Amino acid sequence: MSDLTGLRVLITGAGRGLGRACAEAVVDAGGDVIAVARSAADLDDLAAARPGQIEPWVMDVADSAFHARVAALPRLDGFVNNAGFNRPQPFTQVDVETLDGMLALNVRAAFLTAQAAAKVMVAQGSGVIVNMTSQMGHVGSPGRTVYCLTKHALEGLTKAAAVELAPHGVRVVSLAPTFIETPMTAPMLADEAFGRFVLDRIPLGRVGTAAEVAGACVFLLSPAASLVTGSSLLVDGGWTAQ
After folding, report:
1. What is the mean pLDDT of residues 197-208?
2. Which Pfam families does the record match to this protein (predicted)?
3. Residue 163 falls in the annotated catalytic set
4. What was the pLDDT predicted at 183?
5. CATH code of the domain covering residue 24
6. pLDDT of residue 225
7. Mean pLDDT along residues 168-190
């Protein structure tokens, strides 16, 4: 039921971290991946790890040329809307550059890319959009007002788009991880006080792995999740259950 054989999946932010883990998991489940990132070196390394099943696109997801290229695809079975970033700052000290940058990538680019993917999927009458959100799309946390804002926005996009696209055979879901061991989170988790703050809030007592998120991603893209749309799959060790 989680077999993705023959499916074509586009993944943004695929060069490293969760995006790369999802790309590798999709290929291992039988799918073919269009991997998008700004780093050619990262994509070359990914393609070498999964030869013949990765189509690398060295592009900026905020670029209109990228959105046009997605919309022009003849077929697209899955889209993992993963590109994004976080720059933690206290609410009263958030600078405009940080606010605008995170809104531009985490919300605007994510919306426009999902819109482009949806055009292809509606035309073919099938497809799955997986918005990579966060547990921070369900709760709040100190120093993360902008990140929470952007991830709550994506959760709203998931619900609205799911309702609108369901009659066209297109599912839209969110995948919401807790803190995961990635290059982006490593410096934050290395701080002893912050690491304790995180672990104290996860009932399972540990942060997650990229493989655990990737496995959930494959499930959401697969026929096993054929009745799942408009909802968010929390891979958070119980953080939001409290």
Report:
1. 97
2. adh_short_C2
3. no
4. 75
5. 3.40.50.720
6. 98
7. 92
When pLDDT is averaged across residues 76-102 and rounded to a whole number, the result is: 97
151 catalytically annotated? yes
Asked whether residue 3 is assigned to any structural domain, the reply reads: no
Exactly one of 20, 67, 138, 151 is catalytic; name it: 151
Determine, yes or no, domain membership for 74. Answer: yes
Q: DSSP secondary structure string, the chain?
A: ----TT-EEEEESTTSHHHHHHHHHHHHTT-EEEEEES-HHHHHHHHHHSTTSEEEEE--TTSHHHHHHHHT-S--SEEEE-------B-GGG--HHHHHHHIIIIIIIHHHHHHHHHHHHHHHT-EEEEEE--GGGTS--TTBHHHHHHHHHHHHHHHHHHHHHGGGTEEEEEEEE-SB-STTTHHHHHSHHHHHHHHTT-TTSS-B-HHHHHHHHHHHHSGGGTT--S-EEEESTTGGG-
pLDDT of residue 186: 86
173 found inside a domain:
yes
Domain span including residue 78: 8-228
Structural domain contains residue 180: yes
Domain count, the chain: 1
